[in-house]
Amino acid sequence: MRRLLLLTAAVLCLSATAAQAATVQVIKGAGFGHGIGMSQYGAYGMAQQGSGYAEILRHYYKGTQLGQAPARPIRVLLQASDPYVRFRGATRATGGKKLDPRITYVVRSRRGRLSVRTSAGRRVGAFSAPLKVYRRNRALRLLGPAIQGVVSGRYRGSMLLYPGSLGGVTAINSLPLDSYVKGVVASEVPSSWDTDALRSQAVAARTYALTTGAGGELFDQYPDTRSQMYRGVISETERTNGAVEDTAGEVVTYDGEPATTFYFSTSGGRTENIENSFIGASPQGWLKSVDDPYDDISPRHRWERRFSNREMGALLGSPGALRKVDVLERGESPRVVRARIVGSRGSTILTGPQIRARLGLDDTWAYFTKVSASAAVVRGARAASAGYRTIVGSFAPAPRAQRLTIERRGGDGDWQRAGSTVTTAKGRYRAVVARAGVYRVSARGVAGPAVRVR
Question: Mapping DSSP to helix (H, G, I), strand (E, B) and coil, where does residue 47 land?
């Protein structure tokens, strides 16, 4: 394809006719999650490189050692204030009441007590809360959908049933710690991962369950990402259960006490200090930023989001038309800690997590570029009868070399290099192209909006 001739407009006296204009906000980012503690893909990468689970855990949780967990059950909220709860598989209830494991039982709340009937309507009894139902060494089936989306799932341990705060019934799964971890590991990471990555996940999940409490006196953990993903027996596999058994009772400790082991999917190459991601949190010695060299196996190691200027301004609550996102402080990774949202009628300051939530970003590791382009036919003073096609716009912040690539869309939809132009220090640019077509500018992997030059 013949290379297009590009002329800078600095030598021309230009007067524009009708133009097509567009502005796009491009966010180039890295990672997926809050960035604190162990990167799951990074741990997977370390295991592939031959690191054992103890080494992996020491890498992500600085200054820690492995210790033994205290023996206590974990209580997981599965259904909250549902009109009724149905279960099957139990042989005993509170007070030694015998149940038939083949029968489905229905529990409703009646004036602060729990009424139990069979699905055929036969009355079993009325019980004070909590009503505990169980079958020794066998899983129970909780019918209907649980909070995490599992429908009629099977769960180890027992079910504790309470009158719900809204008049229904609340179901909580109480089970031994390692039985709970078996339902977490395969819900959090693929069972096909290297064994030491699975073992790392088992120890981190076990420690996290012991050191966090979500529901106060009623329950300890949600079954979803508010705590850890827990899907019960349906998620268990031979490999993940083996990882739990290989690390039975092991937890991460710091100064002799179990340490809160935050973990997440993808670091982008470096984790973050807790105070830079959980804004307002106190610094913790084991939750410091560390290099994560093998995290690049993650599909979200790098990512990009694009917004129109109007859309992004509305989502961020920009005062007036959005002009720019001015990052004021970055963490160690470098995730955004605080940024100023500058609009045509003032500015406002948001934290990195607030920006992530409002824009639906994968992470707070983000760089913002605003690119505008206008296309028009212009005429030059030296050749008044000659029509010139020009692209005018801005690229902010300006690329370090102040050089942009001009690309033209081919007939197959691919973008092909058509030349280059330079920007001012503030990112303004102007270039003339030799023929009609659809063009855009790009630099540093950031592409601007497509505009048609006629």
Answer: helix
Confidence class for position 2, pLDDT limits 50, 70, 90: very low
Sheet holding 92-93, edge to edge: 73-82, 169-176, 158-163, 131-134, 92-93, 97-98
Please give the Cα distance from 261 to 259 (Å, whole number): 6
Reported pTM: 0.89
Looking at residue 423, what DSSP letter applies? B
pLDDT on residue 165: 78
How do the domains of the chain map onto residue ranges? 9-24+371-453, 27-31+308-368, 38-69+190-213+233-291, 73-178
- Whose tokens are 């007067």? That residue is 15
User: Band of the pLDDT at 382, cuts 50, 70, 90?
Assistant: low
Under the phi-then-psi rule, with left for phi > 0, alpha for psi from -120 to 50, and beta for the rest, what region is 152? left
Res. 38: pLDDT tops 70: yes
Fold of domain 9-24+371-453 = Immunoglobulin-like (2.60.40)
